[in-house]
Amino acid sequence: NGVHKIDMYLNAALDLLGGEDGLCQYKCSDGSKPVPRYGYKPSPPNGCGSPLFGVQFDIGIPSMTRCCNHHDRCYDTCGNKKNDCDEQFQTCLSKICRDVQKTLGISESVQACESTVQLLFDAVIHLGCKPYLDSQRAACMCHYEGKTDL
């Protein structure tokens, strides 16, 4: 019905913008703590891209792809906080540029690396709420969901 559709659209908009409180936290609606979903198998990480936005940031730097894959796995682990995953991601990405600097010295390569890292991190901070919440919904369950096969 129409009311249900409006509710779905509003929830999707909230997910995109950071959830109800703007903090992008996954919570059970009854206030209980989400628990890992039994038998959940996350989909394989997709590198530095988001199917939601059709954005592909993978520029062929294997260590950057590893950071992105680790970030995907972090989002896919029930109970992980988005902020913690994002901070680990930023640390991983920043290390890549430091390694480039050590290898190549000061050059345009380092600036290009830092620009790409900043763009990627900004995208995750501003556009990552929906992918995070979707991953948590898949990886977690709330007690009130219960067992449907009793």
UniProtKB/TrEMBL annotation:
It comes from the Eukaryota. One of its GO terms (molecular function) is phospholipase A2 activity. Keywords: Calcium, Cytoplasm, Hydrolase, Lipid degradation, Lipid metabolism, Metal-binding, Secreted, Signal. Belongs to the phospholipase A2 family. PA2 catalyzes the calcium-dependent hydrolysis of the 2-acyl groups in 3-sn-phosphoglycerides. Does not exhibit detectable activity toward sn-2-arachidonoyl- or linoleoyl-phosphatidylcholine or -phosphatidylethanolamine. One of its GO terms (biological process) is lipid catabolic process. GO terms for cellular component: cytoplasm; extracellular region. Its cofactor is Ca(2+). It is found in: Cytoplasm; Secreted. Pfam families: PLA2G12 (PF06951). This is Group XIIA secretory phospholipase A2.
